[in-house]
Design goal:
alpha+beta; Immunoglobulin-like; five-stranded mixed β-sheet; elongated
Amino acid sequence: MKIKILIINIILIFCFSVPVWAQSDEVRFSSNGGVYSKAFSLTLKCQNSSHHIRYTLNGATPDQNSLLYTNPLLLNNDLCSRSDIYKIPISPENEFYLPDSVVKGIVIRAAAFDDFGNRVSPVVTQSYFFKSLGCNLHKLPVISICADSLSLFAHDTGILVPGDLFDPEDIDNSGNYAQSGRDWERLVNVEYYAEGNNGFNQLAGLRTHGGIRARRAQQKGLKIYAREEYGKKNFKYKIFEESDLKKFKHLIIRPFRNACSPAGINDWMANHIAAPLNMGTTASRPVVLFLNGEYWGIYFFEEKVDERYLESHFEVNPDSVNIISSWGTVEAGTSDSWFSLYYWLMTADLSDPAQYSYFANKIDIPNIIDYYIFELFSANWDWPNNNVRCWQTMDDGPWQWVFYDGDCCLDNPKYDVYMMATFTGEYWSTSEWATLVFRKLLENETFKSQYLTRLEEVNKKYFTYKRTKPYLNKICSALKDEIPQQAYRFNNPQNEREWERYCREIDLFLLERENRFWIETKEFFHLKEDEISSVTCYPNPIRQGGNLNLQISTDEDCSVWASVYDMNGQYTYGQYFFLQKGDNTVQVNMDFLSGIYFIKMGSFTKKVIVINP
């Protein structure tokens, strides 16, 4: 099988790109592809008048038997592909949905040939989408992927079908679409058209992407690879509004239906909410995908978290990084450093300051705090067993975490996140193995204080409904008009009303989550502010930058939060303290401008005067 696949890949590369010594001509189109209001006539020309042009309309590579170009082409519905590839079963029978028809664009692939039938130019591909012909994409960018159908749908080698490798007794682990690696990459032409029909048009490698659920579905997860052997080493265009990057090596095309609910927007929402935090996130934008000219629904174009992502965002050598997924699976480099640290952690006691210091030097503590805070806030129920990415440089740099795959976030505001993050049994989305790092970190009082202090800050700064609601408004406004076509094509969502209902559920999550997350946190950490029986503070007044001593008496072991407010009642600072029954003395650094401040702990409020040093 591998030999056959290799031969097919070699043939495809040869078919798409004639060797340089044979490229004596090129075909030029009078208008480039893109989204247009009205149809027009298209003229094709080649430089050598002794050559002729042949073209295809179904995504296939033109050969000596393809249509002969003789006169300008009137771009109307007669030029839409008649292949109807949407009827090909590309998922198990019980998951396959067949609409009556699909929206189509016009795809023209053309090349020059000599009188002996030899192709003497590269293949040029242009895709056209006309609103006047029923192809209204509602201002969304478009991705057009074109490929010879056999490379995608052939029973033995097609990457989008169940095919030879499908086992009806094991649908979760079988099928051509479940395969990975370079052997299952297919050469395609990718066009991306954004505002003003700006974007890119080039050859690339196509693979399926994601877990088996994303690969098995009709609307499949996909990824594209730019390679020098295909013509260009990168995709060069500023794709994402929230990122200044203009060069990408690999990109994900994430399906709308991959989200945990028919709202389809969970991953986009999660990454945008998480973006200000101290961890990597993926930029993305909604698009419409066409495959060989046929409508394939709403997708999200986004960055791929791999060594090239780290190169772009963290300026590291992509050949000198270790990337681990699912707490042990190697994605790049080796796992030696990871397992050495992990197995040490299994028997470590992080309540010991020396052991905690050692571990804190091996991982980025501020990074992992933000990572855990967001995974827990977002109530990601496909975590922590799954959808985990951490990395380090090979010079034994600290391990850092990237937020990865938010399809199952923002769904259930009542999900018991702390239980799942500290679970020690076996469950499909969590396990003792996956929760070890967090459980061990919670043995240390310094870590708990840092975690709670940071959580209180970001919960009020980034997770408020006032801040998260605009993201929901933005994505719903962008998709609303396109939802009926997505629903008709894949029955996911079933209709616009269902989509709106699930969007309202996300809205409710955002409205409730800030307060609920805080309540869950207080319960998990046993924060009992009513256990304080007395508070005194000294020295008072205190010089700016000095340490204020707080003497606190408690009736039992508890955790409390000290909030500092200025004269106007504005929150200035907060810090957690873990107290033992009886008398405790703790310190707050008063590095504030001179003036009067109030420190609140439970039912006690103390006035403190800060003076110039």
